[in-house]
Amino acid sequence: MHEPSDFMRRFERKAPDDCWLWMGSLDKDGYGIYYYHGAIVRAQRFLCYFLWGANYFPPSFIVGTLCRNKRCMNPRHFIISTRSEVSKRIHEEQWKQGKHYARLTKDQIIAARKEFMGKRGDITRLARKYGTSVSTMNRIIHHKNCRGAK
Predict the structure, then answer these.
(1) 41 and 75, same structural domain?
(2) C-alpha distance from residue 100 to each of 1, 38, 147 (Å)
(3) pTM as predicted
């Protein structure tokens, strides 16, 4: 059985603003994991419990990092949030990077379908206008995977 002192030796603490990399085991997604009392826990979450106590955030909250480094263990880089907040933040980052995979409203889906004339380049034009990928707009126009919009 591992103890917290063993845990603290599994990452290298550097300058306060640097990433402190996890040197222990990783899960299939590249996040640090730690075995504690027979259970596998994410290393970042365990560090939060260790530093601030188990009541710091509810189980439904997740630990992310501002630096986007899955192995980072620097608490100054941690973001404690819900999954929906993380999804929203990722979506906003994709927009800033020019990756327009927007979720359209029901009204936008209906409008895009009305604008589609069946001409060459229509789907590409609509994808640009509504901020989606061409493949997403193609599914929208052809009524695939669009719940609630007729």
Answers:
(1) yes
(2) 47, 43, 20
(3) 0.58
